[in-house]
Design a protein that fits this description.
By secondary structure, this protein is an alpha+beta fold. The protein is about 20% helix and about 30% strand. The strands form five sheets. Strands 1-2-8-10-9 form a five-stranded mixed beta barrel. A five-stranded antiparallel beta sheet has the order 6-5-4-3-7. A five-stranded mixed β-barrel has the order 14-15-21-23-22. A hairpin with a 5-residue loop joins strand 4 and strand 5.
Length: about 450
C-alpha cells in the first residue's frame, strides 16, 4: 500500500467532499471530466464479474482487494479497499479502508474478492486534506452544528486552495463553496466552520481515588458522526493474576465474551451508568437509527423503565440484525431497541466486556467429546476464576488460562455422571417396558 499511486491534488482543483473524519480532517475526491472515474468503475465491475465466487481465505494485511460498499442508501457495489486488519479469531471479519471513499468498515469475507492489474493501476483518487486555520482536536471529534454544515456540502462541488503539503504528505487546504467565478465570490468552508463558535471543549474530571485511567464523569457532551465497535478502548485487567469473570457468551474456546468481576470495574461501571443517566435526562436528542457496527446509546423499547446504555448494531447470517450491549454482553432483536447518538466523551471509556480466549487446554480435552464437556463446564457455571495471560495488541482479545482445568473438568464430569446414575437408580420403568422385560 505504501507504493500506491496517489492522485495529486493541485491548486484550483474542483473536488467533492465524500467523507469527514472530524471537523478539520476531510476526505475529498477530484471532479474529473476525462472519464478516469468511469473507467475505474468499469474495470472494477469487470473484475467482480470474472470471479464467480468470493474469497474463501483471509487476505494479508496491506493487500488491495475489492469489497462491497453501501453508500448513501444506494444498492451496494464493489469498491477498492486495502486490508487494515483481519479480525478472524473473534468476528470472522476484515477491517478495510476504502481507497476511493476514505472510510473504514468491517466487512464479511464473503463480501470480498481479489483484484486484477487493471484495477490496481488506477491511482487512489480519494485524498485526506487538513483544513487550514482550524485547531487540531482529537480525531473523530464532531460537533453538532459543524456536522450539519458538512452534511450540507457533502458531494457538492468545492474549489481547493492548496496552502502547502503538510506532514505525512497530507495537503493543507482551504475549501470554497457556492456560486461565483472567483474564490472571493464564494464562501470559505474553513471560515464557515469557525463561525459555528463551538470551539470550547470543556472538561472537568472527578477523579476521586483514581489515577490517570479515571473515568471522565462530567464532560460536556458533543455528538460523533459515527463510532464503530472496534474504535472503543477496553478496560484494563491485571495480567498474570487470577481474577473472577462472568462468561456472558461462549461460542468456542477462542471466542468468548466475559465481564471481569473486580471491585474497580463494578465501581467504574456504576459511575459510568450514572453519567449516562444524567446525560439522557438533561439532553434532548432525536432518534437515530444506527449503521452496522455503529455504537449508540440504546434502551430496551419493551421496558420503559430500563436504563440507557451503550450498544452496537451487529449482523450475522444466523441472527440477522441484532443489538449487542457493549458493557453487559447481552444481545436482543433490533426491533426491541430505541436509539440515540452517543456523545464523544462516552466513546473514550473502555468497554466493560472483553473478548476472550481460553489457552493452555490439555490435549486430551481437545476432542469432540472434550469440546462438548468444556462448553457445558463453562456455560453451566458462568462465573469462573481465570488467569489473564496476555492481551492481543490489535484485537484486544484477552488470553486467559484456567488453573487446574483438567481436574476441574474431571470433577465436573464426575458430578454429571453421578447425577445421571442417581436418576437411573431412582428410575421406575413404565408398563410398556415391563412387558418387554417379561417377554425377554
Amino acid at each position: 500500500m505504501k507504493d500506491a499511486n496517489m492522485y495529486e491534488l493541485e491548486e484550483g482543483h474542483a473536488v467533492s467532499l465524500v467523507h469527514y473524519k472530524g471537523f478539520n480532517k476531510l476526505v475529498v475526491m477530484p471532479i474529473l471530466k476525462d472519464g478516469s472515474l468511469i473507467h475505474l468503475a468499469d474495470d472494477i465491475q469487470l473484475c467482480q464479474e470474472k470471479q464467480l465466487n468470493p474469497m474463501t481465505e483471509f487476505p494479508e494485511v496491506g493487500e488491495i482487494i475489492i469489497a462491497r460498499y453501501r453508500m448513501n442508501g444506494k444498492a451496494p457495489k464493489y469498491h477498492r479497499c486495502v486490508v487494515k486488519e483481519v479480525i478472524a479469531s473473534v468476528t470472522q471479519k476484515i477491517l478495510v479502508h476504502y481507497l476511493d471513499a476514505g472510510e473504514e468498515m468491517l466487512v464479511e469475507l464473503d463480501q470480498c474478492k481479489h483484484v486484477d492489474e487493471a484495477v490496481v493501476k488506477h491511482p487512489v483518487y480519494a485524498r485526506q486534506v487538513d483544513l487550514d486555520g482550524i485547531p487540531d482536536m482529537p480525531e473523530n471529534l464532531m460537533l453538532s452544528r459543524v456536522e450539519k454544515y458538512l452534511c450540507k456540502i457533502v458531494n457538492k462541488k468545492l474549489v481547493l486552495n492548496l496552502i502547502k503539503i503538510g506532514e505525512n504528505e497530507t495537503p493543507l487546504v482551504k475549501l470554497f463553496y457556492g456560486p461565483g467565478h472567483t474564490l472571493a465570490q464564494k464562501s470559505c468552508v474553513n471560515e464557515e466552520i469557525l463561525k459555528t463558535g463551538e470551539w470550547v471543549w470543556e472538561a472537568s474530571y472527578e477523579r476521586g481515588n483514581h489515577t490517570d485511567d479515571a473515568i471522565h464523569t462530567d464532560l460536556v457532551p458533543k455528538a460523533m458522526p459515527c463510532v464503530k465497535l472496534y474504535d472503543l478502548p477496553v478496560q484494563k485487567v491485571p495480567l498474570h493474576e487470577n481474577i473472577p469473570v462472568q462468561i456472558v457468551q461462549y461460542h468456542a474456546l477462542d471466542s468468548l465474551i466475559v465481564i471481569p468481576l473486580l471491585m474497580k470495574h463494578k465501581h467504574d461501571l456504576n459511575v459510568f451508568q450514572n453519567q449516562i443517566d444524567k446525560y439522557v435526562s438533561t439532553v434532548t436528542e432525536s432518534p437515530h437509527f444506527p449503521e452496522i457496527g455503529e455504537v449508540v446509546l440504546l434502551q430496551d423499547s419493551t421496558d420503559p423503565e430500563s436504563k440507557w446504555q451503550r450498544g452496537s448494531r451487529s449482523c450475522s447470517t444466523k441472527l440477522g440484525d441484532f443489538l449487542y450491549a457493549v458493557d453487559h454482553g447481552d444481545v436482543r432483536p433490533i426491533s426491541c431497541g430505541k436509539f440515540r447518538k452517543i456523545p464523544f466523551e462516552f466513546t473514550g471509556v473502555g468497554t466493560f466486556t472483553l473478548y476472550a480466549s481460553i489457552v493452555g487446554v490439555p490435549e486430551e480435552l481437545l476432542t469432540q467429546d472434550g469440546a462438548e464437556a468444556l462448553e457445558r463446564f463453562f456455560v453451566r457455571e458462568s462465573i469462573h476464576t481465570l488467569r489473564a495471560e496476555s492481551i492481543h495488541p490489535s484485537t484486544a482479545v484477552v488470553s486467559f488460562s484456567c488453573p487446574n482445568l483438567d481436574s476441574q473438568i474431571l470433577d465436573f464430569l464426575g458430578t454429571e455422571w453421578n447425577h445421571e446414575f442417581e436418576n437411573k437408580e431412582n428410575y421406575e420403568p413404565g408398563p410398556e417396558e415391563n412387558d418387554i422385560d417379561e417377554e425377554q
